[in-house]
Design brief:
The chain is an alpha+beta fold. It folds into three domains: 6-94, Rossmann fold; 95-119 and 182-280, ATP-grasp fold, B domain (D-amino Acid Aminotransferase, Chain A, domain 1); 122-180, Dna Ligase, domain 1, CATH 3.30.1490. Helix content is 29%, strand content 24%. It contains eight helices and 15 strands. Strands 13-12-11-14-15 form a five-stranded antiparallel beta sheet. A four-stranded parallel beta sheet has the order 2-1-5-6, sandwiched between helices. It has a four-stranded antiparallel beta sheet with strand order 7-10-8-9, sandwiched between helices. A hairpin with a 5-residue loop joins strand 14 and strand 15 (261-267). The longest helix has 16 residues, at 73-88. The radius of gyration is 20 Å and the shape is globular. The model has no long low-confidence stretch (mean pLDDT 92).
């Protein structure tokens, strides 16, 4: 008789997504704990050298990572160490820690996309404000401008459209500058991008995000629209997910003025609440079943 799988869902704030995952895991007779990574810590007096609430002398069979949580550099590093330790102890992580690290840092994601010749907008990531201003000056001469994004972040928070070289030093002292290449939908006077949810190298859901503003995240007021995915978007989405070895990922894509599709982000802990409203598929069920195939 197969034993029930012990699963931890990690999130700093357990929401609809955690509840959906927990519900589907319980349907498949899994024992589920909802924890935060700051609940866990390295403890060399323990048999496994790690403390996880509810696990005294054993470990979970697998962990689904929903969010790492905000924190200082040291706090984030410590939480990532917990995930590295769990991987070393042969606990299945969904997504894997290496995937999360590659996609959480936007500069690394962009480097990998460009290195593997996957279309992505021109991007620069300097620390020195003088260099950043020179980049913007050159873009201005070409009648272009940039999107300034935080290296770490989601839901469009902290993103700014920079049309001139009047740049203020931010507290992180890093400038992730991406040439704005998104094509305007003139008939609607809107901007849009595509969010594609990939699981196990298959497209399971997709949507257009449309906004009157240039920033097209749902969290910034964009409206979700259904659309029929084409072969080109399908191909580039799957290539992007494979690039970071993602078990599942949210791929963000724009269409430029020349009609080329370009990947702007790879999300290894994507939300799917809005996508779920546009599809009859049970997304949480698909993700959970894929996760459980990885646990022996």
């Amino acid at each position: 008789m197969k034993k029930n799988k012990n699963v931890v869902i990690f999130s700093d704030s357990h929401d609809w997504h955690s509840n959906q995952l927990k519900k589907e895991l319980k349907k498949l007779n899994c024992n589920v704990s909802c924890l935060s990574l700051d609940d866990c810590f390295i403890d060399t007096k323990r048999k496994k050298n790690i403390f996880i609430p509810g696990y005294k002398n054993n470990l979970p069979d697998g962990c689904i990572i929903r969010t790492i949580g905000k924190g200082t550099f040291q706090q984030i590093t410590r939480r990532l160490t917990i995930l590295h330790a769990l991987k070393k102890l042969r606990v299945i992580l969904f997504n894997d820690i290496n995937c999360i690290e590659k996609s959480t840092d936007k500069s690394m994601t962009t480097f990998l996309l460009s290195h593997k010749k996957i279309n992505t907008p021109d991007t620069w990531v300097p620390e020195k404000i003088k260099i950043a201003k020179n980049i913007l000056k050159k873009l201005n001469k070409e009648k272009n401008y940039a999107i300034w994004k935080p290296l770490f972040g989601s839901q469009g928070k902290g993103i700014k459209v920079i049309k001139n070289k009047k740049l203020k030093l931010n507290k992180e002292k890093v400038f992730y500058l991406q040439k704005f290449e998104n094509k305007k939908i003139k008939s609607k006077d809107t901007w849009q991008d595509f969010r594609i949810l990939v699981c196990n190298k298959k497209i399971i859901a997709s949507m257009i995000r449309e906004n009157k503003k240039k920033i097209t995240n749902i969290g910034q007021g964009a409206k979700p629209l259904s659309f029929r995915i084409n072969k080109e978007i399908k191909k580039i989405s799957i290539r992007a997910s494979k690039l970071v070895n993602a078990s599942y990922a949210g791929i963000d894509i724009i269409k430029d003025i020349n009609g080329n599709f370009k990947v702007i982000e790879i999300n290894s802990v994507p939300a799917w609440k809005t996508l779920q409203k546009l599809t009859k598929k049970n997304i949480a069920s698909i993700l959970v079943k894929e996760f459980l195939t990885k646990i022996k």
